[in-house]
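pipeline stage [seq->struct] | target=Aminopeptidase N | organism=Streptomyces atriruber | residues=493
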Amino acid sequence: MSTNRTTTRRGAQLALAAAITATVALTAPVSQAAPAAAEKPSPGAPGLGDPMFPLDGNGGYRVERYYLDFDWQAPKTPFEATTTIKARSTQALSRFNLDFGGNTLHKVTVNGSAAGTSREGDELTVTPKSPIGKGSSFTVEVTYTADPTQTRHRDDAIEDYGWIPTPDGTVVYPQPNGSRLIFPGNDHPSQRAPITFRITTPADRTAVANGRLVSRTARPDGRVRWTYDSEQPLSTQLVQLAVGKFQLVDSEGPGGIPLRDVVPDALVEPTAAYRKLTPDHLKWLQERLGPYPFNRYGLLVGDTDLGVALETQTLSLVPKADLLGTKVDAERNMVHELTHQWFGDSVALKGWSDLWLSEGHARFYEREYSEQHGGDSFEAAMKTAYQNHDIWRRDYGAPAEPTEPNLFKRMRYDGSALVLYALREQVGDATFQKIERAWVSGLKGRTASTQQFVDLASKVAGEDLEGFLHPWLYGSKTPPMPGHPDWVVDPAV
């Protein structure tokens, strides 16, 4: 996600996270346990215990695939929806939870039989007719009415998220945990699964989603069914599903990468010049990071007033204002979201405290590219970030130790890019590039944590970087910048 706009609650979250973690531990498999058939069924944990959002995600099972069936009708109009979840239990389950917020629930079945349900906040608790054995495959079907006007708000860079109406349809902003407004699931960035989208629309609308268009089928009633396959697993925060009067503009990137831009009819020509820069952006990033990690890419031009772009996997959402402004600003956001396809999408976050790895890298390469293509000095931007770093640490938390209300504040952007800048200054550019390539190639398609990054950087550099990186990532005071003894940090008073 990018934007160029410039407690005690924390203690309660940590306590809840600790309690949930203990629950997960108690219900997790034990190495010396009896055979799975003899395990007594127990409830799956209602959350994964993430300190930012303790109830996000769920314990006791892993999703193997989602099937989303949406009967979309018209802008700002509720419609009928069904989510089918293929999952496998990791413990014997007496009941389990789904993250699901705000939609009108109709019915839940497990393996074809009606299941008991209860709801509290965003937690939908499902009690199957019969317990689910450990290691068993099972199918959950949830029917509900979706409301394409349902949004939530954050007072940081995210702003409004969830379903975002457009003049002739909708787009979605699922980050950080808005996918539960779209469909029930296991809503945490570490939980990845492939998705099949089946979206029915009026004949004059186009539906798009992550991945490959499998089919477009005209129905006898005049409506059209669009089927998409995400192709690779993705985190729920990276889902995209949009409907509108779009044109699909196909082209080709370096090495034959299929490119598909999704553009509102009236914006095709006005945005064409900047959209055609994507192959150049891909080439520039591949020279630094190696092969693009997915099968295809493209831009979804958002006909909204939100000033937020989003790295939805293989189809980045970019607001129209970004593509109707200056070339420098447009390219900054385009490169930022494209960089996320490596950092945050392909290599996913293990927890929300690892967000600095995603946003910091996106801002790092965005600023490096911009400096080389008519934008501001990268070094000057980092010197300014260094000057403000202690203030940001005080107000927003250290780069790898955010607080929930400040998760998407400046520290996760320029403040985190500064950590990578310091690492490059410490180990040298050649070693830094080796670290970056090792990270995105060795962890492609996996989730990863801050500690894994520190360990990998140390291994590649041939020196223990824990003592160097830990103060940058967690300390209350900003360390000296290698190679820049004249840089000064403003005091946080």
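stage status: PASS
auto-comment: Residues 246 and 264 are 4 Å apart (CA to CA). The chain is about 30% helix and 30% strand.
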